[in-house]
Structure formats: structure tokens, C-alpha cells
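To make this tangible, this section ends with a sequence with its C-alpha cells:
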Amino acid sequence: MKLSLLACLFGSASAFTAPASSYGARSATKLSAEKSVALPFLPAPENLKGYVGDVGFDPLRFSDFVPMDYLREAELKHGRICMMAWLGFVTVDMGFRIYPLPEAYEGLTSVTAHDALVTNGAMGQLLLFIGLAEMIGWIAIAQMLQGSGREPGDYGLDPLQLIAGKSEAEVNEMKLRELKNGRLAMLAFSGVVTQAVLTGGPFPYV
């Protein structure tokens, strides 16, 4: 009877303990999980691996449900636009003009020019041309997502031959430079527009 009772007690207690092998496997998996470089308190997103400029920054985990090639295409496009936009925004406010402006536009800043151009109708032309460029660009993006082999952001535009004849490592270095400058430009353009609106003054908007 005593032996039977002891066997029952040990049997019921073992039901509340995890097998040693499974516990060890879970512990090993937990300890070996790779952490993000940018956010060390979060796991590194798997889908970012292999892309130039990957530091594991995807806190909202967009790469889990959006194709990574599409995300990289969008990042490059916005970065390139903001690099040009920051330069254009600041140079106009510093007085640079590429052609004489009508008297009605004299004294306008990059902020106040928007409403004036909307009234004039010039913004409608910009919408048309940009819309056409987006439609043409979407063809290349759709083909890329279907497996054409095209790399994100690659439109074959290299008039200065900056990557012609370069090794893969050198090409990746150039891509990383563009990516970093684009990311910085997105932050810089947001900052310069905000500062211009808050101060209402010319560059440097203080």
C-alpha cells in the first residue's frame, strides 16, 4: 500500500514538470536568438538579412507581411526624393532661382510658394507628370515582385559610371552610402519643413 501511494504521488508530481529534453531545447533556442543591432532588446527581423544596410531596424515588423523588395524600393525612392527636396527647399529660401520669376511670386518662400502655385495651376501639372512617372515606375516594381531579377531601386541610371567595373563589395559600399544619405535626408527634410513653418523666416530658420 505504501509503495502504491508513493508511486501515485511521484506520478502526479511529474505531470507538472517539463521533460528535461524539451526544456533544454527551449532554453537553447531562447539563448541563441539573434538580437537586432539597432534595437538590442528586440529579436532581429529574419527577412532583413542579406540586404545592404541591414541593422535589424523593423520594430513594427513590416517585413513579416510586406515583401522586403517592395519596402527597400519605397525606402530608396523616398530617400532620393528627400535628398533633392532638401536641396531645393533650402536653396530657394536662400534666394537661388533658375529663371526670373513674375513679380507676383517675388518674396515667396518655399512654404508660402505652395499655395501660390496651387492658385496658378502649376501644382496640377506637377501632379500629372509625377503621376505618369509613378505609373511607369510601377511596371518595373511589379515585374520585380514577380521575379524579374531586378534589384530594388535599380533603373539602370548611372551616367557618371560610378559603379561601372566595380567589385561586388565596392558596389555594396556605394549602395550603403546612398541608403544612409537617403535616410538622413528623410529626417532632414522633415526637420527643415517643420522649422521653416514654425519660424516663418528664411534659412537657417532661427
Helices lie at 2-14, 20-32, 68-93, 113-120, 122-145, 168-199. The mean pLDDT is 83.
